[in-house]
Each structure stands twice: as structure tokens, then as C-alpha cells.
Amino acid sequence: MTTTLLEKEKQITHFSFTGKGSEYFAIEIVNIVLTVLTLGLYYPWAKAKSLQYLYRKTELAGTPFIFHGTGKEMFVGFIKGVVILASLYAFMLYAVFTENIGMMLLAYAVFLLGLLALVPLALHGMMRYRMSRTSWRGIHMGYRGKLSDMYSTYLIGFFLTILTLGIYGSWFVVNLRKQMIDNVRFGNVRLRYTGDGADLLLIHFKGFFFSIFTVGIYFFWYTKNLLHFYVNNIVVLQEDGTYSRLQCQVSGWEVLKLTVGNILIVVFTLGLGVPFTTTRTMSLIMNNTVMSGQFDADALVQTEEAYNSATYESMTDMMDIGVI
Amino acid sequence: MTFEGKYYNGQSSKGMPAHITLLPDGLRIDYSADEVLGSVYWELGGLHRSEFNDATTLLRYGKFPQQSISVVDKGFKEALQQQYHGAAFLKSGYNSVLGLGCAGIAVLALSLLGLLVAFVVWGVPALADRVAMYFPQSYERQLGEQLYTKMLQGYQVNDEKTAALNAYLSELDTDLDYPITAAVVTSDEVNAFAIPGGYVVVYEGILDKMEQHEELAALMGHELAHIQNRHSLRAMTRSLSYYMLASLLFGDISGVAAVLVDNASALRNLEYSRSLELEADREGLELLRRNELNEQGAILLMERLQSGSELEMMAFMSTHPNTGDRIKVLNELIGGGEQPSKKNPELERHWEQLKED
């Protein structure tokens, strides 16, 4: 895919998703069978396989992304995650069975503090792992954030959110995204997140009240606004000072069609159709997202070093933290 | 054979036009970048597995940073298969499944669905029963005691009737592995239930309905059978395993803890399966037989419960389905021949006390 540099002003680079529901469905069927047969041990390999498929079918400027992660690598993180979470739950269950109020409170405190301490670690680990294992045209992404920064961002945000009865939550989310996205490198290109907490708060306020007034119909437009807020505030900076912006053009109406369709698929296939909802969602978002500005697809240069870090990938997964 | 494609060297994202030649033990890539010509040779062993290709075939080679080529040519894919059939980088179980086509995938999915249903219908209850049966008795008793105390907190216990009921029960030959503790609570509800470990709660409402003590014996026989055969524990492990299965599927582990915390209320609304109810009926009848009491008591109890007004019956009947069927089964079990039955003055004395207001 060659890019014409004649029109210096604005240039559109497209994202696209070429995956098919039936293909992804077949992959997931194999994954489920193997995971069940191995009593869950295959899970990391299954995860790697579906990520490899989804990446392979996600294209930027006509070239697909590649996910380099392997089941073996993720297995380590998976085991760590399982052991840590299982011991937290075991303690909790033990306390419940003792029926001792003090013990239960203690277990609950340990549980919450444990989760609180784990989330930043998991987020950091996931960013490092995911980014290092992602490449496009042979150029790897990378994450340069420090764990200590992640901890301070997370803990400060968490407590301020509690102190302000949730109001600060919007700034918390934005700061967390900044911490994660601003530290991403894509070869010699950097990312910036330019969202503002006040804007997010406004979106939430509007979303909340309009959803009530419209008996929930506005919810889809609320979701669209959130999507736009998360995607359209990502700026791609090149070394020469030029930049481009991500632009998501999904409309509220499309979100509505997507959501209703997905729900119907899940219900009528008894959940087996979930892979179709994934490809539908990916198609809608990717095929309606472009990079607009002066992105030069040929100018990326490898800046990452060979990777061999330990992983926490599966931990985020188990803790149900949806990121990007 | 030579194909046209793009070559990426792993240092820059610039795709260099390239000619790819398939050689017996590897690929030769001749590329041109800004008038400069270059050539690399890829040994087959260094190629990474290439899956999920579509119109474009993507091949990656070597250690970090990997080189790669992309070729938009269906012929390239076929040529690779022909030339390097069986090579490691082309092997993929997933690709073979994708090659099955829609019909094959559908068959696979349906058989998976079948397996899943079979597992849920037969596998889970069998496993859960296993677990319930291996549950240590002392622990079951401890759990039961906690549930019992917790449950009684919501009711007023009628001490006199409780004493009479316990005396009645100790007079019965129950053949139970558990010591029995029973309580009569003040409530118009027509209900009674068993708690694991040997605890029984009887509502005054159901006692008021009864006219003969054999009905009480039948009711007790039924409830004690639930205890002896660990029915509630079995039902609990079943619902818990379904819950765990669901939370595994939907990735919500915290729900399991919630179920455990909530088990006291769950127990009250627990539905035993039809087969467990019939088992309890059968063994309840057994108890009447062992004590040489009139077996018609079991039928009377059923009819009494059935004949009450709809609303009254709700509580007991909603957890005990198919009363008509149960009466039929009981009648078959009793059979035509009259069993020997005696009057039991001791039991009747306690019964009188129970019926006193």
C-alpha cells in the first residue's frame, strides 16, 4: 500500500476488519472443545489463537496486525492469576463458613485490598505484554510506562473517586487512559491521549439523564459518545512533529443495530453465537475508524528490543477488566 | 516459480517490492528499495507458522525483529502447499477446521451443543451427587446447625409443641444416621422442611391440617428421608455447580461466593427434583411400615394437603410437585394387601400434646 505524499494537508488512512463470523466461530468451537477436554488448561492457547485471528484480520492501510503472543507465554500468567485469585476466594469462602463477623470483615478487606493491589499490576502487565507482542509491517509496538506511575495514578484516582462520591471517576478514567496510551510506542511513533475528564463527565451526565427521559433509547447514543471519546482523542505523533488523529465515525443508530442484533444472536443461539457478535462489533468499529492527518505508513522504524518479559495477560482477563 | 509481493525487513515499515522464488529448501526474496537491490534467503525451518490467510498470504521469518512478506496472489498459497506440503509452517489444525466449510462447522457446533446439554443434564447432577456424598458428616451437621439457628431467628418457636414433636420423634424407630432436632414454629403457612445434618422445621399450619398422627409420621418419614439421603446437600451442590458452570461461561466468579452467603434463604426455596421427592415418599412409607403404623397415613397426608384451598397450599405444594402422581405411586407401593398395623399409645400421647392449643 503506497501512500501519496502529494496532498500534504490531510490524508486518510483506513482501518478495516476482514474477519468473518463463521471463521471466528469455527476457531472458537475448536477452542471450547479443547478447553473443556483439558479441564481449562488449554485456555491460554485458546486465547492466543483467537487474538491471532482477530489481529490478523484487523488492517491498517491494507496491512494486517500480527499478534506474536503464544499460549505457552500466557500460560505462566494464567497460572499466576489462577493461584492468586483462587487463594483470595478460598480465604473469603473460609471466612463465610466460619460465620464469624470479624473474620468475614477481615476476609472482605483482604479481598478488596488484594484486588486493589492487583489491578494496576495487571493493567501494567497487560499493556507491556500486549504491546510487545503486537506488530504491523514488522514494526513492534511497545509500552514504556512505569509500574510505580501506574500504581500512583490508579490509587490516587481510586481514592479521589471515593472521596468525591464518584464525580472524580471521569478524570480517573481519563488519567488511567493517559497513563496507558501516552506510554505506547509504535516504532518511532508515539501516541497521546487528549481526552478531558470534564468532557467525559458531561457525556456521563447527558447519557444518564437522556437515557432516563427516552426510556433507555438514548443509551445507544451514549455508548456512541463514549466510543468517540475513547477513540477520537487518540493522537498519533510522528518524529518530525506531524501528527494524525484517530476518528471513529460510528453513529448511534449503528450502535443500536449492532447491540440489538448481538443480543438476538446470543439469545437465539444459546450463547454459542458470541463469536459472531465479536466480529460484528469489530467490523463496525474498525471499518468506521480512520486515521486522519499526516500518517506516513512507510516511515515507521523499529525501536523495540527483543522481548522476554513475564506476563500478566490472563490476570486482567480473569479480573474482568475490559481494556480497549 | 516466482511471485510478486512486498518484503518488510523488520527495521522499517516500508514495503519493498520483491520477487519471491520457491526453492526446494527455502524461499529466495529479491527486493528493491530505492534503486538498491538486495536478496535474502529464508530456510524453511525459520519460517513461523502461517495461519488464517485470506487473499493475502503473510509469511514471517527469523528471530526478533522478524522479516515478513505479503503476497496478494491466490496462486502463491497453492504453490506453497504444493511445494512444501507437510512443512511445519503450513501445519495448522485450525486451518483444517476452517477448511471443513459451513456444513462441517455446523455439524461440529451442533455436536458440541449436544455434548454440552448432555453434560448439563446428566454430568453435572452426577458429579454434584458425588461431592455431596463425600461431604463429611460432622461438617454437614455443623453447617446444618448454623442454617437451623439462622432460620429459626425469623420465627417464633412454640416450645411446648417443639418438646412434644421431639418426644414423638424419639419414640419413632427412624433408623437415621443423624441425631434429630425438630422445632415447631408459629405460622399459618402449611409447610415443613428438612435441613441437612438432622434438623426439621415444622409449621403449625401443617399440624393444624392433620387429624391422625400417622400423617405426622408420614410427613416426618418424608422429611427425615431428605436428611438421611442428603437431598438438600445434593440439591445445593447441584445448584451450586450449575451456578459455577454459568459463572465460568460468563466469567463472573464472584457470584459463587454470593450463593454461599445466600444459602440459608436458598434452602427454603430449594426444589428437590421429582426423583428425590419420590425417593423421600418411598422411604417415608418405609418408616410407617417399620413402626407398624397404618400406611394410609401417607395417602391421607397427601390428600389433606391437596384438598386445602389453593392459597394455603402454595408453600408446601410449590416445592412438592405432582401430588396426584405421588398418591398414585404411594398406592402402588402400599399394594392391595392390608399390612399389619397397630395402635401406638406412646405416639398417640405425644400427638395429643401436639394438637393441644
Automatic annotation (TrEMBL), chain A:
<feature type="transmembrane region" description="Helical">
    <location>
        <begin position="103"/>
        <end position="123"/>
    </location>
</feature>
<protein>
    <submittedName>
        <fullName>Uncharacterized membrane protein YjgN, DUF898 family</fullName>
    </submittedName>
</protein>
<keyword id="KW-1133">Transmembrane helix</keyword>
<dbReference type="InterPro" id="IPR010295">
    <property type="entry name" value="DUF898"/>
</dbReference>
<feature type="transmembrane region" description="Helical">
    <location>
        <begin position="75"/>
        <end position="97"/>
    </location>
</feature>
<feature type="transmembrane region" description="Helical">
    <location>
        <begin position="201"/>
        <end position="221"/>
    </location>
</feature>
<feature type="transmembrane region" description="Helical">
    <location>
        <begin position="24"/>
        <end position="46"/>
    </location>
</feature>
<dbReference type="Pfam" id="PF05987">
    <property type="entry name" value="DUF898"/>
</dbReference>
<feature type="transmembrane region" description="Helical">
    <location>
        <begin position="151"/>
        <end position="174"/>
    </location>
</feature>
<feature type="transmembrane region" description="Helical">
    <location>
        <begin position="255"/>
        <end position="276"/>
    </location>
</feature>
<keyword id="KW-0812">Transmembrane</keyword>
<keyword id="KW-0472">Membrane</keyword>
Automatic annotation (TrEMBL), chain B:
<keyword id="KW-1133">Transmembrane helix</keyword>
<keyword id="KW-0479">Metal-binding</keyword>
<keyword id="KW-0378">Hydrolase</keyword>
<keyword id="KW-0472">Membrane</keyword>
<dbReference type="GO" id="GO:0046872">
    <property type="term" value="F:metal ion binding"/>
</dbReference>
<keyword id="KW-0645">Protease</keyword>
<feature type="compositionally biased region" description="Basic and acidic residues">
    <location>
        <begin position="340"/>
        <end position="357"/>
    </location>
</feature>
<dbReference type="InterPro" id="IPR001915">
    <property type="entry name" value="Peptidase_M48"/>
</dbReference>
<keyword id="KW-0862">Zinc</keyword>
<feature type="transmembrane region" description="Helical">
    <location>
        <begin position="97"/>
        <end position="124"/>
    </location>
</feature>
<feature type="region of interest" description="Disordered">
    <location>
        <begin position="337"/>
        <end position="357"/>
    </location>
</feature>
<dbReference type="InterPro" id="IPR051156">
    <property type="entry name" value="Mito/Outer_Membr_Metalloprot"/>
</dbReference>
<dbReference type="GO" id="GO:0016020">
    <property type="term" value="C:membrane"/>
</dbReference>
<protein>
    <submittedName>
        <fullName>Peptidase family M48</fullName>
    </submittedName>
</protein>
<dbReference type="GO" id="GO:0051603">
    <property type="term" value="P:proteolysis involved in protein catabolic process"/>
</dbReference>
<keyword id="KW-0812">Transmembrane</keyword>
<comment type="similarity">
    <text>Belongs to the peptidase M48 family.</text>
</comment>
<feature type="transmembrane region" description="Helical">
    <location>
        <begin position="240"/>
        <end position="261"/>
    </location>
</feature>
<keyword id="KW-0482">Metalloprotease</keyword>
<dbReference type="GO" id="GO:0004222">
    <property type="term" value="F:metalloendopeptidase activity"/>
</dbReference>
<feature type="domain" description="Peptidase M48">
    <location>
        <begin position="168"/>
        <end position="333"/>
    </location>
</feature>
<dbReference type="Pfam" id="PF01435">
    <property type="entry name" value="Peptidase_M48"/>
</dbReference>
